[in-house]
Amino acid sequence: MEKKFLVFALIVVMLSHAGAQTLAKHLIEIDIDKSGYAKVTEVYSLEFSDRNELDVFLRNVAKNGPSLEAWKIDYEWLFPRFGSATGISAYITYDDRERAVILNYTVDKKFAKLSSESVRSSNWRILDTQFGNFAKGGIIIIPKSVEIKIVLPAGARIDEAKLTSHAKRLEDAVILGGISTTYINLQYALEKPIAPPVDFTQLIKQFMASELNLVFVAIIVILIALAIWKRKGIAQKIEDYIVGHSSLESKAPEEEEVELEE
Hints:
By secondary structure, this protein is an alpha+beta fold.
């Protein structure tokens, strides 16, 4: 009786682990735009001990599709690490060759906060509260199996003096992984574009290449024609005036010479 119970228990244990898999690597990339909003891509790289585990997982892939809610029921490790559950727009895909689940979502609220602004630049800050899913007792712990890459807008100037010393710089990105720190404090500045000088030569070329120049030329021709017509009319009036006054003068009575008799 005991042997039958042990065999049954073993079967139950095997079945319960039939769909098991190991999360080998978790990569998170956060792309922040110039307005402070973020698009997040989380890549869960998985390992399977045998073909049976993989087959069970692939059946769940087909069943769950792109629905995040469906995936969260089967796999508790799959959930957005940033943003609130109701404040994101998410969808899921599966890369069969890499054996990785890919979670894409946008955070509805601004990921970076505007701290201050001047005529030439704007200063931004990513609050440490954004890393709430990695915080334990006031300490931010990012395991070695997790790598967070924060990609800032092009040209961002990072305030490295205030940034945690555990962060790594890679051009316009900051990489966090395998760290334990009391703060991240990522601050950066963006230069505002300066209006370029007006290129009159280019403006003329663009105007000549457009269809509006024909309309403009036609308007100029009409204005010139009107000016000439008006000028001729004025000249004619002046000429008529002069001729009219000349004829009047010619018709004036001549003074008669009067001889005085002595």
